[in-house]
Design brief:
Order of helices and strands: H
Number of strands: 0
Radius of gyration: 23 Å
Distance between the termini: 67 Å
Shape: elongated
Structural class: mainly alpha
Oligomer: single chain
Helix content: 55-70%
Number of helices: 1
Largest sheet: none
Length: 58
């Protein structure tokens, strides 16, 4: 059975506090919501324009 370094050694690197974890989660949620709104906006604009999007002058 293979063992990893984390099985025997304490965790190294940056350890975030609970406040930092909450802040990171809130930023992630805000980013996801902004991206979702942008996707919905593009979708709505596409529906409003309809098939005229494909009619381009030659």
């Amino acid at each position: 059975m293979a063992t990893t370094m984390s099985d025997h050694e304490p965790q190294e690197g940056i350890v975030l506090t609970e406040a930092q974890k909450r802040s990171r989660r809130n930023r992630s949620i805000a980013t996801a919501l902004a991206l979702g709104v942008l996707v919905l906006l593009f979708f709505a604009v596409t529906l409003v324009k309809g098939p005229a999007v494909l009619n381009r002058p030659l």
